[in-house]
Amino acid sequence: MARRQLSARRLAHARRVAELERALRAEEERLARIEAAETWEELDLAARPTLDETGEGRGRAWRVVLLAAVYVLAAVGVFASLGGSPSDEVVSPSPPVAHVDPPTESRPAARRPTHGVQLPETFEPSVFLIRSTGGAARRLDVPPAHSWQPAWRPDGRALAVVSDQGIVELSVSGEGPVRGQPVWRHRRELVTMSLPTLLPAYSPDGQRLAFSVDTEIWAVGLGPQAPVKRLLVDATYVDWSPDGRRIAFVRRGRVLVAMADGKVFADVSHGKEDISPKWAPSGRTIAFTRLDDGVLRVYMSDPYGDVVRRMRGADSGAAYAAWSPDGRRLAYSKFVDRNWELVVRDLATGREKRLTRTATDEGFPAWSPDGEWIAFTRDLHTQVPR
């Protein structure tokens, strides 16, 4: 009897292993299709679930998801230990992920540190607009919608934001009390995918929009044809050079520069935990955020990485730097009074002007092309005690 029970258990175990192996092979094939996708439609189709949504299919689907998670995490661990990379670039180990997710519930209350060791929070993000000289800030989206990571169109007539539905573009109003300002009701969809799309960036001529999809950078044409092209893999945080010929981006904690077709030619930051590169209007400098000795700070470099220096005067923490259109000022998030506030610095004098005084975090500043406005993300969840 005992032998028969043992034999039955072994048979059931073998069947279970075979079933899991089949599910894993199916998920490997799906991941391979995602990696091989060359068009927006192929990527969207490859990312969709293909299992039946009834009974056994749902159970199998959950097992595939769990197996895929284990497979991806294991692959990432092995990949990092071997120092591999999809490109022929030598890269550093992956830094803590600086990823902005769609709104979630607030965290439990906890006392914040005295220095900016974590990026501004975005649990309930909304884009606001404020004059670059200061004043009251106006919320652009309409509850219950959320928006974050704004980017101005180069002609100043529209603002792209990440929303719950994807990337949308808000046209400026031509009349009334908000004339010349982006309006939520005047919006249109630019990018809608089944995968999260983040960090939009217009090309200088306004004809293309680059954005991040997971750890890939894609670009969509904004003309009648609207072609979509994948520019880079294992990359995020994209920004175009002023002449549109190059792009700065982040790969595994390092700021790199590539030609607009995706060919990498310069390691700019030589760092391990760098994010958010932004080209100066002159094209001669790139500002970026670095986790330096446990504190987030703004650094600057030439496009070739020959000279890298830290911006002085923000020892408590600074992040998400953005250049004014004339290149004379820098807007960024500064850690003040235990939360992130929006400030503008005169680069010639080093003098700062604080634009916000709230109990919430502000980040992702973006200057309007005329320099009059700054759009930024504000976290509307209940702030933690100070």
Describe the structure.
This protein is of the alpha+beta class. It has 2 domains: 2-82, no CATH class; 125-379, Neuraminidase. The chain has 3 helices and 24 strands. It has helices at 2-36, 40-47, 55-82, and strands at 125-131, 138-139, 147-152, 158-163, 166-172, 182-191, 197-202, 208-213, 216-221, 228-233, 236-240, 246-251, 254-259, 264-267, 274-279, 286-292, 295-301, 308-310, 318-323, 329-336, 339-346, 352-354, 362-367, 373-379. The strands form 6 sheets. The protein has a 4-stranded antiparallel sheet with strand order 2-1-24-23, with no helix packed on it. The model is unreliable at 50-111 (pLDDT under 50).
Q: Structural class given helices, strands, pairing?
A: alpha+beta
| CATH topology (fold) name of the largest domain | Neuraminidase
Number of strand elements: 24
* CATH architecture name of the largest domain: 6 Propeller
Total helices: the number is 3
- The overall average pLDDT, rounded, is 79
Order of helices and strands: HHHEEEEEEEEEEEEEEEEEEEEEEEE
Helical residue percent band: 10-25%
Integer-rounded radius of gyration: 23 Å
Number of domains: 2
Shape label: globular
Strand order of the largest sheet: 2-1-24-23
CATH first level of the largest domain:
Mainly Beta
The fraction of residues in strands falls at 35-45%
Low-confidence stretches: 50-111
CATH superfamily of the largest domain: TolB, C-terminal domain
Biggest beta sheet attributes: 4 strands, antiparallel
Distance between the termini: 67 Å
